[in-house]
Amino acid sequence: MFFLRQKIGYFLVVIMLFVVLGACQPVPTEQSQSTTATPVAAQTPATTTSSIPVAYPDRALSASPAQLPKLPYDYNALEKAIDAETMKLHHDRHHATYVDNLNDALKKYPDLQKRSVESLLRNMEGLPEDIRTTVRNNGGGHLNHTIFWQIMAPNGGGQPTGEIATEINKTFGSFEGFRKQFNEAGSDRFGSGWVWLVRNPQDQLQITNTPNQDSPIMEGLYPIMGNDVWEHAYYLRYRNSRADYLNNWWNVVNWTEVNRRAQASLQQKT
Ligand code: MN
Hints:
Low-confidence stretches: 11-51
Shape: globular
Number of helices: 11
Largest sheet: 3 strands, antiparallel
Structural class: mainly alpha
Strand order of the largest sheet: 2-1-3
Bound molecules: manganese (II) ion
CATH superfamily of the domain at 162-267: Iron/manganese superoxide dismutase, C-terminal domain
CATH topology of the domain at 162-267: minor pseudopilin epsh fold
Mean pLDDT: 87
CATH class of the domain at 162-267: Alpha Beta
Order of helices and strands: HHHHHHHHEEEHHH
Strand content: 5-15%
Radius of gyration: 25 Å
């Protein structure tokens, strides 16, 4: 009798479990189906500015797949400002990781691989939510570093030359004034990020900084030159002194490339 009652007891428990589990199942609604099934291709594929190259003066960054660009000089070529070990770690490890993470995130979405990294970053809201932050951080990291390597050179430094010299004087009063404001904006960025010289939609030069790996293009600004103020960019030589790094960095600025980018940022808008 006892065993029979126990069996009935178990039976009731099992029945109740089924009832409870059944009640917990989400009722499929029109809305939940449509959010999970939103086809990526149906998102606005591009804004009117998405064809503007940013990574290079004449071309945007491919995402099919994203590739780590070669450094345009040796690891020890920028010793005037950055030591070889930092350059090697920064390029081969940090930048490479951004590229790998971006490719991993886009594997699930072949349609997105057909777009440029710049186009993805300009349309963050249109990206699937599950990869949005990954694309923002790693697509941004890939783009920012691709620009960074180009706007430095072993024979860089000194006074700016060409059109950008005139524009800097006109906008900031003098090169010294510009350098001071740029360094201050780099120091002011709390935590990790970048300091930039950008062109705004009114075609003016402007100094700005961004957190993490955010790109100025996410705010409609064209990055002409930028300095990386993440600790990984300077800690081996400069330790905690970001200000010393910011000061010394001007010894490797590639004014030829900065000029090219400044001109590209104007031409692309016409
Ligand atoms: Mn970096």
